[in-house]
Amino acid sequence: MSTEAQITDWLASQKEAMLAELAEMVNTDGGSYDKEGVDRTGAQVRRFLDSHGIPTETLPQQKHGDCIRGIVDGGHALGTGNQRANIVLMGHRDTVFPKGEPERRPFRIENGRAYGPGVADMKAGIVMNMFVLAAFRKFGGAPGPLVGLFTGDEEIGSPEGRPVIEAEAKNARVVFNSEPGRASGNVVKARKGGVFSVVDLEGKAAHSGGNFEAGISAIGEAANKIVAIHALTDLKRGITLNVGLIQGGQSVNTTAPNCQFQIDLRYVEPADRDEIMGKIHDIVARAYVPGTKSRLTIKGEFLPLNPTPASDRVFAVYQAAAADSGLTVEGEFTGGCADSGFTAALGAPTLCAVGPVGGLAHSPEEYLDVESFVPRAQAMARAIARLEQTGL
């Protein structure tokens, strides 16, 4: 039996073990700002990898979940001492949900779908990566060193994880990011970049009935700025702007002394980022209501994932590997952002959303297609085993 067949047969035998690991992870708190909870999921990853003889390294983070690296040595895998650049299996352990959500909505399986906070986005992808690493550690066959990188703050733009990801990308031969497969079963070849920023505005309080003229409305200023910012949307270029949060004011009968709103910018081409951010800075600097003051702060950022000839070759190999695993897979574009943009920007051929298939992420209805777990793991394993076909 070939090594590839040994690996895929073993993965087929691990479905219940995969679901058990997933249940434990989903039932563990893991919101991006819950460092303790995210670190508990990191401890689970380390325990699993240690039990399969895979050494791990913990990269401590100050505010968010620690980053974990699991390493399957290429020399062990091939028996040749191969030291080629790393094949990176990447994923984030954090979710968007508040503390206590797993207790309110614990892991469950109904009618072939698994439910629970973060079940698809992306705890299933984390578990899949764990088992693929274990398979190559057990049977060998990887054409170079494998690195499993498990981060803890992607849902808020990877403020601490980004430098770790970028350092890994500089020595990456290829990157598989195990975000959830699309509901269609497809993987993602391209993503938009995104900038998430906050505008704080200052006005002057005054009684809105008895002393109206003395007031300077921060809310009035925000309204003008929001209209101008939304007008920067250019759908033909894939540029969208959305002010999704706003708060401010003191009382209904007081001219608003303060206001804050948050902007979501999405774009496709890297050059568009600087152009639109420049226009946003100009809008923020302008006082539509005389006497107001405004400040813009960037809180998080993702880079776009754009296809390259190298990533297209990786996709072709993955697509054939998926077909041999019983899957029909195409590549698609999405407006969502992910850590894969950071690795692609540094020249690492990157394929995203290769994790098990799911949908309705970030909602109480988020689900995972249970039957996709094994074939998606097999597809990744086959693609890794056949990586030499890419010429990379």
From TrEMBL:
SUPFAM superfamilies: Bacterial exopeptidase dimerisation domain, Zn-dependent exopeptidases
Gene3D superfamilies: 3.30.70.360, Zn peptidases
The species this protein was found in: Neoroseomonas terrae
Pfam families in the record: M20_dimer (PF07687), Peptidase_M20 (PF01546)
Keywords from the named record: Hydrolase, Metal-binding
PANTHER family the UniProt entry points to: ACETYLORNITHINE DEACETYLASE, BLL0789 PROTEIN
Keyword Iron carried by entry: no
Location of the Peptidase M20 dimerisation domain: 190-291
Source domain of life: Bacteria
Name this polypeptide is given: M20 family metallopeptidase
